[in-house]
Structure formats: C-alpha cells, structure tokens
Protein 1
Amino acid sequence: MQVDIKLKQNEKNYKVFINELDKISLSGKVAIITNAKIAGLHLNTLFSKIIADEVYVVTIPDGEEYKNLNTCEDILRQLFISKLDRTSTLIGFGGGVVTDMTGFVASIYERGIKFINIPTTLLAQVDASVGGKTGVNNSFGKNLIGTFYQPEAVYCQMDFLRTLPSREFNAGVAEVIKMAVMFDNDMFKWLQQADLKNESELSKLVQKSIQLKADVVSKDERERGLRAVLNYGHTFAHVIENQTQYKCYLHGEAVAIGMNMANSLALKLGLIDAKQRDMIKNLMHKFNLPTHYKIENVENFYNAFLLDKKSENDKIKFILPCAIGDNLIKSDVSKDDVLEILSEFK
Amino acid sequence: MQVDIKLKQNEKNYKVFINELDKISLSGKVAIITNAKIAGLHLNTLFSKIIADEVYVVTIPDGEEYKNLNTCEDILRQLFISKLDRTSTLIGFGGGVVTDMTGFVASIYERGIKFINIPTTLLAQVDASVGGKTGVNNSFGKNLIGTFYQPEAVYCQMDFLRTLPSREFNAGVAEVIKMAVMFDNDMFKWLQQADLKNESELSKLVQKSIQLKADVVSKDERERGLRAVLNYGHTFAHVIENQTQYKCYLHGEAVAIGMNMANSLALKLGLIDAKQRDMIKNLMHKFNLPTHYKIENVENFYNAFLLDKKSENDKIKFILPCAIGDNLIKSDVSKDDVLEILSEFK
C-alpha cells in the first residue's frame, strides 16, 4: 500500500510505503540515526534492505528526555566526523523522537540534506513521520525548536510494531482516535469494533490514518489554518507533559487526557453532548488510555497555555470536536469557562 | 534605491532597501538581535524607526567566535522568556554574525517566524544579508549548520557604515571584488578608480553588488549550480579561518587571500594570465587587503578541503576566474596541481 503526500507550497512530493520495504538503493553516504534499543532489535533487518556504498550508524539514548538540542549536537558531530556531504542521506529509524530529530538534523546539516523516515512505533507511523514537522523540546515546552522539512520517503512496516510494548502501541492509537474524532465518523465506528491484533486490520488503520493526515497536511503545509486541527488535545497535553517533565505519560497518553479535557470544554460550549463525550472516553479506555490528570493549580495550568506555539498574541486557540467527525477552532473562549473545566480535573 | 529579490523555488519575494530606512511598522512582538557594540552605537537610531507594540532587545557578544549553537540557544531562551509567538518578528541588527544567526534562530523558533535584516557592516550589506543563507560555525568549520530561510526585507543604511573601522570596511570590499571578478568586468574597472569615501559612490557599490548577488541567487536559491560561484575564494578561506581559529583574519580578508590562491590555480590551468592575476592582487592591495597566508603543511591544508560543504563525494570543487568578469567551476583538478599551488604559499 502507498499513500501519496502532495504539498502545495513545496515542489517536493513523496510517498509513504506501507509494508513495502523491500530494498532501498541510495547513492552517496548514508547515516542511520536510531536508538540503542531499536538498533539491538531491528538494525539487522534494516541492514538487509539498504544498498549503499557507505553506511554509518549513529545511536542516541532512548527517551523523550533526550529530544533536545544537545542530542542534536551529538548527532551533528558524528555526521561531520563521518564527513557526510550534501549528497548524503539520513535515515531516521525509531520512534517519533528519532524521526523528529533526524528530520531536524537533516534540515540544518550543511543547510539541508536528504532524509528518509522508517518509524518503528505506531505513533510515529501514523503521526510523527508524516507532515514535515521536525523538532526538539526545550525547558519551555515540546517541539518549540524545529523546522518544516519534508522527507524523501517514509516506510511503515507492521513487522517493527511486533516488539512494541502494548502501552506504547496504545499511545499510538490515541492519535488515530484523534483523527477519527476530528474528521471521520465512519472511522470512529470502525475503531470501536476493530481488532488490531489482526495484521490486516492494523495495516488498514495505519493506511487510513496516514491518508487522513496527508489530506490535511497537503492543504496546509505550514499550519496556517486547517492543520491546527491536528493539535486536538495537544494544547492540554503539552502542559501536562511539561508539568510532569515528560516522565509520567507517553505522548499519546497525554494527548488522550488532553482530548478528554477538550471534550469537557466542547460539552460546556454545546458542541458535543454528554453521550458523545462518553463514547470517545470509552474508546480511549478500550485501548487502556488514561483520561484523567490531577491539576494542582488551575491558574498555573492556564498560564502555561500562553507559551504554546498555537497561541498567537496571547489568544489561546482551542481545537474542539463538533459531534464526532467534525471540528471547530475557537480563539474566543472566556478564561472563566476554561478555568471551570480545568477545575473538573482537580 | 531598492533591489528586488525574486526567488524561483519559493513563493516569497522581498526587497532590499538602500538608504530608505524611514519607519518600519510591525504588528506583534518584535525582538531586535544585536551585539553589545552596535547596541551602544546605533540602537537609539533604530528605536526611532521601529513602530511596534512590544519591542525586546537581545544582545550577543561581538565576534565570529560566538557564532555557534550555544549563542543561538542563549537567544532562543530569551525569546521564549519574552513569549514571542508565530506572529512575532526578529530584526537582525549588526554584522554578518548577527544577521546569519538571527536568520537561523528565526528559521527554527517554533518552526519558523519572520525576520528582517538591518546589516551594519559593508560585508553584511553586500553579502551576508542577501540570499537566505543562515547559519553558525562549529569546530569542524564555518557555517556548517544552518538553513535556507528568507527575510521579509533588508535595509542597508550608509549611515551605519560611518562608525565601521577601516579594516572591517575593506573586508567588505573583498566580497565586492569577488563579485566583479566572477561576473562583471565593467564593475572591476570602476572599482579600480572608485572613491568609496564619497557616499554616492558607496551606495552605488552596495546597490550594484546586491543586484549582482540577487541575479545569481534568484536563479539558484539552493546552491545547486551557479550560486556556488559566489564561493570564489571561500574554499581556501574556510581552511585559513579554521586553522587560525577565526582569530587572525576578518572573513573578507581570508576571502581575499583565498581569491589570490584560486587565481594562482587559475593561472596554472591557463584560465587567466599573470597580468590579470596581478591586476586583481593590486585591486586588493588598494583596499589594504592581505593576499598571502603561510601554509605550514600543504597536505593538511588539502585534506581540510574535503570537509567543505561544497565538496561532494570527496571531489573538491574549485571556483576559478576566466579572465576578469567570467568564471568556471572545476571538479577535476589533480591533487598534484593543487599541492603545487599551495606550495607557493609556504
């Protein structure tokens, strides 16, 4: 299966290949960026697929806490030592942390070299590896430093998902639920009864999610309007991840909680009803996703929104569901309404 | 005077304004990035021109040795503390170090915000601020980390050049000589008799250089072919700067030496004659530019070329003059020929 990613603002289109990683033939030097764990599990498989003159491997520590500029500098140093040049290609081989950093490093190494993503987690397959968002976190928040930079191709293999702990797998499903709630009621219904242990249902999930995301990204590469909808749940999730220093929740888990918070707000504003909010919550529970986070101080939580990239001129932009399968962006929600909702999570 | 910068690969065009900085009216937050010295000399003047709701000033230390990722992190930290968002604008106010880093920071802050360049050195006016190359140095060489990212506008004011030490002024003239030798014999002749103390001749110089560079950049934004010609002298200069740790020569001075080395190679290959080489050397001496550097070890010097961004697949690309006003890129120069030329500088 293939999904075409077409970008209006950019001359470069590319493909996402699903279960089609046979051989990748590359000219010039190739550097695989991966983490210690994925290297041990799957590097052998990847080596058997890559045809290139010179292949280098750069490993980084496994974990969101290493998604920062220091790690990028470590990667850059190794690439310069290996004398990669403008004809070289990076391959990001791992979860979203690896693929986001590989893209970022590719975008700034000698002002931009090629990269390919081979995501090994469900989250990275359905979300992080499509759309050209690259970046790292810093002490102020998540993905606050980065670029828009497109890969040459993305390869999603179901094989690599077999070794994924179920908690990480489910965190990936959270982003799929997000797409369904925002854009596709049929997909939401399908998810309610889907059996993702079945490999063909799993590939269908990946293909369908990527297609939905591709449609959005192709219409709005630089996140001026529509693409912001993909941040449903994320405004809240970023604060939660920051407050817990990325140590308690996987990204998808924080997004699940964030969606539930957004849904409470949508309910208050009359965009969804209680039954719809509960249906979404139940679907998240089907995949063992958390939906609650104890907010210590609602004022602090509210103020933390203001540093979010999506907050322009101190206006907080909330992305909310309208029933299931449609969405609304609201920048005029009163602070009182938000504080009231946040108080439900105290 | 204005020069239009038109970019084929990019939807965004912009203008360089020469002696036309009257008022700049900006919506959203504005952060001026400058260095301690320029701030003391000219920030007052700039303040009187900027109309914006909130203006922040971030100063960095003055000097090429601070053009690195650490300084960028310092800038980023201050921008996050000031809560700049995607509607904000950075203003790079200083020499090439400041404008290159401002562009780089703008390109990675929240995946890209707007920036304006107001270069205060001749070098930055004629060279660094036009073309969308942003970046920083690292221990492996100059500008090895960066992006292609275009400003909203560039303002070149002759006023700001009055406080420039003559050594720095002349270093800027080196890049103008580069443009003339590569592209424009008439301009070369004009330079031989020009009096740059005269303000109208100086603006003509700035306008003419920017126009020549704009023509090149608009044809080749991403440096696939023609734009490489702008690196005449630079392949050698980067090695010299790196070996002397950016401490002995200003960039333009290193480029002057590099051009003279390239000319020796061009002479050996029969592309120019001895008279032309000497004419170029004499023009550089008119502006007190150095043309000699003592190479300690020619093998080491040669090997250092291989890390240059312009060296692809270990082939060294030499940019050479063909008479005066034309150029040639050669990737097939034998190592022996190069070593022989380098030996002249022992």
Note: The longest strand of chain B covers residues 29-35.
Protein 2
Amino acid sequence: MELDNINPSVLHVKPSAMRKFDHDISVDPDIIKLTLGEPNFDVPEHIKAAAVKAITTNCSHYPYYWGFEELRQAASTYYRDKFGYHYSADEIVVSVGATEALASTVKTLFKPGDAVIIPTPAYPLYGALLTLNQLKPIFIDTSDSGFVLTPEKVQKAIADHPESTIRGLILTDPNNPTGVAYTQDQIAALAPVLKDNHIWVISDEIYGELTYGQDHYTISKYLPEQTIITNGLSKSHAMTGWRLGLVFGPHPFIDEIAKTHQYTVTAAASLVQYAAVEALTHGQNDAAVMKAEYQKRRDYVVTHMTAAGFDVVHPGGAFYVFAKIPAALHMDSWQFVKTLAKEYHIGLMPGDPFGDNDYIRISYAASDEALAAAMKAIKQMVADKSRNVSKTAER
Amino acid sequence: MELDNINPSVLHVKPSAMRKFDHDISVDPDIIKLTLGEPNFDVPEHIKAAAVKAITTNCSHYPYYWGFEELRQAASTYYRDKFGYHYSADEIVVSVGATEALASTVKTLFKPGDAVIIPTPAYPLYGALLTLNQLKPIFIDTSDSGFVLTPEKVQKAIADHPESTIRGLILTDPNNPTGVAYTQDQIAALAPVLKDNHIWVISDEIYGELTYGQDHYTISKYLPEQTIITNGLSKSHAMTGWRLGLVFGPHPFIDEIAKTHQYTVTAAASLVQYAAVEALTHGQNDAAVMKAEYQKRRDYVVTHMTAAGFDVVHPGGAFYVFAKIPAALHMDSWQFVKTLAKEYHIGLMPGDPFGDNDYIRISYAASDEALAAAMKAIKQMVADKSRNVSKTAER
C-alpha cells in the first residue's frame, strides 16, 4: 500500500519535535531534563488513596461519555470558586487530558478551510491540530508586545487576511512557553474585537492555578457565549500521566463537543474520574504547596539566566522560563539544546517548535538539585562557547 | 454564535443511541440491564495490584506517546502466542481503549471522500467515525449469509459503486452484535479480493479471546501488508473502564497512526499502562474463567430465547445474542426494548443502531440472576403482547 495514499493532513503534520527530542536525549543515563511540562511533585496522597479505593472496590466500568455527574458537579463548584467560571454540570465534559479537550474542541467548532489565530510563541499542539483538521493557522508574533496578544494585533491580523474567514483564536493564559500571565485589563481588552468579529476563543487555562503575585483571569467572564475553556488536573494536581481534562462552554456547543469526544475515546478512565472527584472536592489547596516552591525556583532560574547573559521574559505563571540565547553564541535554539544535552548532559526545550528559534524554554518544575546543575552547566557552556566563538573570530 | 456554523460532519453525526438509551433507562432503580458490552467480572486481582503499585510508587508521569516500550514488547509476545500476530514493538501503538485505536486509524488511513465498507449489522461507532472524517460508508447487509461477509459480497459492492474509491473495510470478528465468529476458511477467503482491490482491512478483534468451541483467526495472517488490527484489554481482562487499547500494523503506517494518536490524546494513562504490562505478561489465562461462564450463559440465553419464539443467530464468540423479534408482536426493535424497559424493567439493546430494526441484542456478560430475570420477563412480554395483538386483531 502506498503511504502517499493516506490522509494528507496526517502525512503533512510532523510528530512532536519536543517529545521526540525529550525521548532521544533520555538514552543518556546522566541527562538531567528540564524539558517537558511535568511537575516533579507526586500526586497528592488523598487523590492517590481515592484512586486505590476505586480499584479495590471494582469501580472499573464504563462511565457515561460526558463523565460522571458527580465529577462534573464538583468541577462546576471548584472552578467557580477558583476563577469565577460560570458553568453548570451540563456545560462541562470530562476528557482524556487537556490534549483531547483541545482536539475535540478544534474538530467540533471549525469547518475545513476556516482560519484560526495562534499567538506565538505557542504550544506546538495547536498548529498540529489545525493541520490535522484542514484549518488555516494565522500566527501572530507577540514578541514585540511583551508576549501578550493585544486587540490591535487581532485587528491587524483580520485586516491582513481578507481572504480568510477567521473563526477562532487559541489563547494560552498563563502562557506556555513564555510563562506570561495576562492581567485583568489585558484579558478584558481582547473581548470586544473578538465579539465584534464573531471569533471563538479556545482558552487554554491549564496553568490557571500557577500564577505568582497575581490572580488568574478568565476571558469567559467577558465573552461567555464565545469561549470554550480547556483545563485539567495535570498541572494543578501533578496528574500529568493520569490524563484528566475538562472542557467548559455554552451548552449547545459543549453538547456537540461531547459527541466528538465520545466517538474519539468513549470516556475518560473511570478510576481516574473517581480520583478527580476527590481532587476537586478536597484538593482546593493542593496547588498551593507546589506554587510556593515553583515561585522560589522561578526567581532562582530568572536570576541565574539573566546573570548568564540571557534576555528573560518575566514569568507571572506556569513553570517555564523562556530565555533568549545570547547573540555572542551564534547558535539557534536546536544547536543550543543539542550541544547542551550532548556535552553538558542537561536537557532543555528549543524555542523553534514554539515558533521562535532564538529562545530556549526551561521547565522549572524540577528539583532544586536539577536546577542548580542546569544553571551551572548553562553558565559553563556560555563561557566555553563564547570563548570558542571569540577564538574562531580571531583566526 | 450559530450552531449551524460549526463543523457539519460533527453536526450531522448523532450521539450514540445505544449509550443514550442505556443512560436513560438507568434512572429506573429496578432496571436489570443487559445493554452495554461490559463484563460483569471484576478486573483480575493481579492486575489491580499492579495498578495500585503504580499509584503508590508514584509512576504518574507522561509516558512516551507510542506507549511504554515494555508494554509494547509484552503485547508483541502475548498476541503472537494467542493468535499468531507478527508485530514487533515498533509496529504497536498503545491507545486510549479500542475506540481511540479505531478513531486514530480511520482518521489516518483515509482521505476525505474515500469509501469504506461496513458489513451490517455493525457496531455503530464505525459509521459515526466515517461521517466525522468525511468518508463514505458502503453498508453490506450480511443477514442473508449467516451474518458472514463473503468475497462475493465485497465484489458486488465494488461493482455496485463504480463512482466510489473503496479504500477500506471494517471487519469485526468475533462480531458485535451477532456474536458470529468467522472460521479460518471464511477469513482466508476474504483476503484475495481485498488484496486485488487494494482495500485496507481494519480488523476489530476486541472479542478475539472470547470464542466458544473454535479458535480465533486473524486476517493479518493472510493480508499482513493491508491489515491494521485494533484490540485491547476491555473484554479479555474485563478492563472496560480503564481504557487500554492497542493498534497493530506495518511500521510506516503505524508511525502515521501514532502521530494522529499523539495529537488526539498525548498517551494512554501511565498507571493503566503499568497494569496492562501485568495483564499481558501474567494474565494469559485471565479470560479462560470468564469464557467458561460466558459459554454456559450463551447456551442458556439461546435456549430460552428460541423457546420464546425468537430466531437466534448462533453465536460462536463475543458475549451477545442477536435475536429476531417474533413477527406476531408487530414491534420494531425500539418499540420492543422501550416496552420491555418500561413495563418489565429489563434493558436490552435495539437492533436499529446496528442496522437491523427487526432484532434485539442481549449482552450475556451479566449475572445468572439477571439473565434468569430477563428470560422470564421476555417470555412474559411475548405472551402478554401476543395476546394483545390477537385481541386487537379479533375486534
């Protein structure tokens, strides 16, 4: 059979360069990885206990595809109290992680040929999902506005693309990879231009609980009828490998997303759903301990990276530092991370898959020892390679 | 926002009528359900213990998107020993249940506009997946050939649809809803016509371990280069709610399916993958106990349904009896199951969503007590309603 004969949308999309790089460097037994967005914390004990109980009491059967009613009720209350979401249980679908939440939402809301705005740098999944669904990405570079999307930039994108029907925007707040957390004013300012132009916002709020010195503001407060929120327990409760996501939105649209979800995965695993009920009813403070640690580590990484000569975006949330490679190194992001992995046994993410080849991303959801080793290695590499560059230049 | 403006493929597909009916009748506290294809057995203890260990030892992190190497190795050996599959670990992807295995496979292999054969009656998911992916279903009725797809029927479908590019066939063996298990000759006979016409077979073998008095034969033995197998642990290890599926196929195509899978769900839940390693390394005989029970129940149900006046397909596998409603009742499948649920508190599946409105499906993956109550109620209803029909006719 001819490979050329399969779905061209699948053929044209590339596997995640991030995860491949992470996988490839993992063969090095000495590697210290600050690559994936994965908390180094364990799942809180009370949630683990709930999962164990679900297993030992044989709660192993098919959940209804929307997810357990009890879980959706718990999510309704939890996120109302946390961020002011206003969604009842029948406006919430339980998904297989935030990835499936995004995949089912993108597949449902847009028609082949529709255009969708992605502010960059951005999590690479978004672009891949657009390609897979025959949608047209319109990338908006935010590096000249503090990595914040502004209404002016949206307006300009609309004006610059008269040939396209722009029907959506994927907004990530707090942002991955930059760590930027939007202020209330910045979020509120976006609503009118999106409303006037009938643009759906898919609001990826997976890092919502991880903001430092400021609150998280959801655009659904300003634009409820045009917002679909994707969220989940991977970051707030350190449950990355458990795959528990949530989709929130106006009922008739959530009803459609639920269908796509059903025919994609049937339902999220039942034992994980029981654990999630526990997380959302008694785990309101689970993120607080992690958050305090993350904030210390953020400050540590920002300080050291700045001292090493990197321009650093000041991160108000998430657990990433996005840092501009010193020009003296004459390296793009792939050269930098490959050299650092090979010669110094430290794994970082290149900025290229996020849309900016001059930056590297550091996940500081890692131990203090790992961060100290990474900072030391990065400083060393900058020193070594700047010397080399100078020497080469001298020849 | 206008609902009409979303993806028409999603808008046109209906939510699963099966699961909705099951959900709706569940409000009756007295209902005894033989509806979903769900074992009434619990997950074997050694598998539960492995899952608990994964939780308590904090194995909660992202697995690589293909699935753990150890799990794919275990699957390679397990299914080679069971059914003669010949796939190495790099020809196997771990999915979120068989549903996601099918969804990612259909999405990857076919281009919008391609036609795919579905022999009917069939599991309704298949048709929905074709609609969602802008594919054209070509339904082949198998009720006049003992519910077995023959090469002649494939040939005729090709001749009858000169306007279509038929690029796939979704084969379910053992079959849901009929319980028919193909013989080796029947499977072997299909290979040449599929080979000659370059038709992919998506071979859904989820009930492969549940055959009675005969072996399971995989078409991949005869057509390895054109077969993608979907399988999983839901039925063989009673792990329905755990969502662990597997996709097997030639490497370059599995590589493409893995991409779709990655961008749909990231990966199957890590703790479930650890449990699956245990199932596939030490659970070779887990299905045997269930199978012996199922076979007794099958015989019991077939005997009683035949006595009650139903024409019954003799099931060689799975755990369903597909039975033709006696003509004297003058009822279609929805009328039958709704009356039985409302007046007699027994839940069965209508044949209509499977493509045959004259039949009902009974899942005998249920307790002896439930089956006895169901048989009694069905006999009673046939007696009651046949009397009514006669009385009405007399007036």
Note: Chain A has two domains: 3-42+286-387, 59-282.
